Amino acid sequence: MxxxxxRMRGRENLVGAEVGVEWGEHAREMINGLSIDLLYLVDPxxxxxxxxxxxxxxxxxxxxxxxxxxxxxxxxxxxxxFREGWKIKxxxxxxxxxxxxxxPNESLDFAYxxxxxxxxxxxxxxxxxxxxxxxxxxxxxxxxxxxxxRKAVEEFIREKEGEISEHGNDGKNVKSDWWAFKK
Length: 183
Description:
alpha/beta; single chain; 7-stranded mixed β-sheet; 6 helices
């Protein structure tokens, strides 16, 4: 499990979100390693990010997008659904399209952002997801070593008078994580 998500260990009955699911590996690690009641998985898995949102830095073919989604579904199959005891809910939208009716404000113990890495879209994600975090909850993300991600996160958390923690590359090809707890 990535460094930021591991900060939720020891808490019970978590409700969280992973924004940018890709292959589903990190979602599975969080489900297996944390006490999660519900994990929202937010990823549009659509044709080409460049055609849908021109600021994106993640060009993708239809085939690649479908391979990712199929792999994530297979990896997470034991946890999917909406019945009691099932732990995940897929939302096939861009992260910045989620409103307070889909995921209510102050309903999440944590959100882990790993979607688009362009400055403007990171800022949009932070703006959308911060209100969804409960007081005492954590907003976090991946790839803090990307200059655009670092700049957006530092500006946003400074505006909220929060404190950022980070975990750098551990030599195992794991890029740096960041996290901030909401007061």
